[in-house]
Structure formats: structure tokens, C-alpha cells
Amino acid sequence: MEPLYARLALQLREQIERGAYRPGERLPGVRALSRSRGLSVATVLSAYRSLEADAWVEARARSGFYVRPRPLRELPAPDSSAPHAVPTPVTGQELVLDLVKATNDPAVVQLGAAVPDAAFLPTRAVERALSRSARFHRTEGAVYVFPPGLFELRRQIARRMSNAGCLVAADDVVVTNGCQEALVLALQAVTQPGDLVAIESPTFYGLLQALDFLGLEVLEIPTHPQVGISLDALQLALERWPVRACVATPNFSNPLGHCMPDANKRALVDLLAAHQVPLIEDDVYGDLGFEALRPAPCKALRPEADILYCASFSKSLSPGLRVGWMAPGRHQARVEYLKYVHNMAVATVPQWAVAELLQDGSYERHLRRMRGSYARAVNRMIDGVRRHFPSGTRVSQPAGGFVVWVELAPNVDSLEVARRARQQGITIAPGPIFSATQKYRNCMRLSCACPWDERIERALAALARLV
User: Which CATH class is domain 94-120+367-466?
Assistant: First the structure.
């Protein structure tokens, strides 16, 4: 017989689907619904938790349960990219530093850099954890924790990775200064200057800067905004060129936001393995899916493969902590040595603080709230683009993360839009900085992790006029 809470959850879900409760609206309080339905408080709470687990509702602290927004589909998604599949050095990254510097200016409307506003982050929980760590680990916090990093943090990370299907031990984890350093270490571990690296296109500009810094050449592979890197195009590239590594973000890539189906992830790893090419897997957005079920990393689906897994807490917990990690597999010893040579160690107190937030469940509770917050933020931005931008505009439909990729008319120059927008106190990320060859001139990326207010509405309207 079906439990009472499951029947109640089904009834509430049907009401949400029919529009009785719309996205963003508050559902009846637990006690009120308990009285009206003649059910126990525990039954009602179990029903709400079931709906929360299935991503129909979200709990807000001291406020109740609210209907989560469903993804908007009113605007068409961009087409699959079509970069030239020839090796090339990285060019045109000088704009990036200006973009990231602007994030420190409170007078600027920040739609450019993918840095979440503090309103989306558990700042008080982080503050308390840092304070306790500095107080209770005074002696340990005053000394280096050399690679691979603080054992307690690595133990907690290994536990989380195991929950995601990656069977790694604490000794398999290396703590890094964010995911950016993890990517640099991974590239250094498997390549030499002058080597060729296959990447998604468009891709995160920080990766392009790392490739440029390391003297590596790039092979841009066509990428679909829903299913990710083209396996057919990658196979042709592997057969034609001496690719030494492949970097991919299968879960909620930046900037497209795609999440590769598991079958594609397996096929990607198998294809690379057949050509003896290691995969550098960037999973920095993996925890930020809008659905309750976390998508599997490639490392979970093919644990025996040559995969250097990279991630961090910068997008989910606090960018300022600069705590990331990697599970480099067979390259562990090389990565630990490179990490030591780079900067010896990650700051100790932040490692203790993150370990505490993982151990006491604070991080997981925060993720449940954050998923809904990011989903609402992305939907608001897509809706704002729909209302303000010219007809024919295409927008990605990410299932996680907090950025959207906007494709404009072919004659629009996003570099000029970015320049004029900056003069008006607005930042965007123009499309060419996401390509080694400055493609995507008529595209831009918008960061959605900003508190929605009149400033954002005015900024979108101003961008639309410039477009």
C-alpha cells in the first residue's frame, strides 16, 4: 500500500502541474496542511521532503516550502558550434583581466565574470567555520600542510566523491588553490610545451589562459549546447592530429551549460582511451544541477580510465577561500610534486573550515537551497533577455550552473557591445574570449548569480539597446 506521505506528495505535484501553485509561490505551512488534511506533521513534512528531493519544491530557512521554477523554453537554443578543426595558439585573451578586475567595483553591474554574488553563498556559515578553525586549530593553522593537503579535508572530499560514484580514497585527492590551479597542474602533468590539447568550443576563458601560459596549442572541437562535445568531430581530430590531452566539462559547462548524457560520457572516455589520450575532467559545476540527482562524472562511469578529475568549492561555497581539489589517478606523484613547486601548499585554516562544513552537513544543506536559487536566477535572466532583446536572439537552456550563452544576430559585434556597456557601468563576457581564435563575435555570456533588482533590469534594457 502506498504510504500516506507519497499520496500527499503526488496530489501536491499534480496541483503544481495544473498551476494551482505557480513557480515561486509558497505552499501551505506544514502545520496548516496537517490540520486541513487530518495528517500528522511528520507525514506532511515527509511529503514536502519527497517533493524537494524530486526538485518540485525548495525549502527556505524560516519561511517554508516554495514551488521551484521550471526551465523556460520560449527562446530557441544556440546552434552547435563549428570551429575550424586545426591546431592553433591561443590569442586575444587580454580582455579577460579587465573583465575580472571589474568584479571588485561595486558601482559596476556585474554580468560578466562568473563569480556568484555573496547573496547566493553561505557567508555566515563560512565565517563561523573559519572562526572555529582558527581558534581550535591554532597550532596546525600556523604551519604548512604540504601536498597532498589536509587529511581531514581530503577524507571528506573522498567521501563526497564516493557518493557521486567515484571510488577514491583520501590519499587519491590533492588539495589545490581552486579549480584553476588544478587544471594547470593536470595539464603540466600530461603535456609538454608545444603539445596539442583538444578542448570544447566555446570553452572557459581561464582554461585558454592556462593553455597559453603553458605554451600549448589548441584544437577546438564543435560542441552542442545540450549534449556537449561532438564525439564524431573529436574522433576525426584524434585520427588526424597528435592530441596529447583532452579537457572537457561534461556537467554544466561554462559557458554553454550543457550536461552530457551518461552514454556520451562513456563514449568520450572510451574514444580517448582508444587513442591513449588522458581526459582532464573539469567538474567545478557538478554540484550545481537544478535537479536533486547529481549527474555522474566521467570518473564515476569509467573508474579505470586515465582521468584527471578537477573541481573546487569556489562556485558553490566561497570563491575567496580558494579551496579546490583534484583526483589525478596514475599521475598522483607528478601532480603532488608540481603542486609543491608551484606554491608549496594551500592555506591551512580555509582547509579546516571547508572540512568542517562538509563534515557537519552544512555544505549539503546549502546546496539544496542553492540549486533553487541558481535555477530561479537563470530563469529570470532568460526571461529578461526574452523581454528586452531583439527577436531572433538565441539563449542556452542550462540545467545547472549560473551562466547563459546568448547568440545574437550575425552582424552584432559583442566586443563593441562590451566596450560600450563598460562605459555605462555594465560588464558582459564577449564571445571571442571563449575561443582560441576569437570566434563567436556575435555571442556573449551573462552571469545570472546576481540579486535581481531594478539595476539588473535597466542593465539588460541598456544591453538590448546596444545590440
Answer: alpha beta
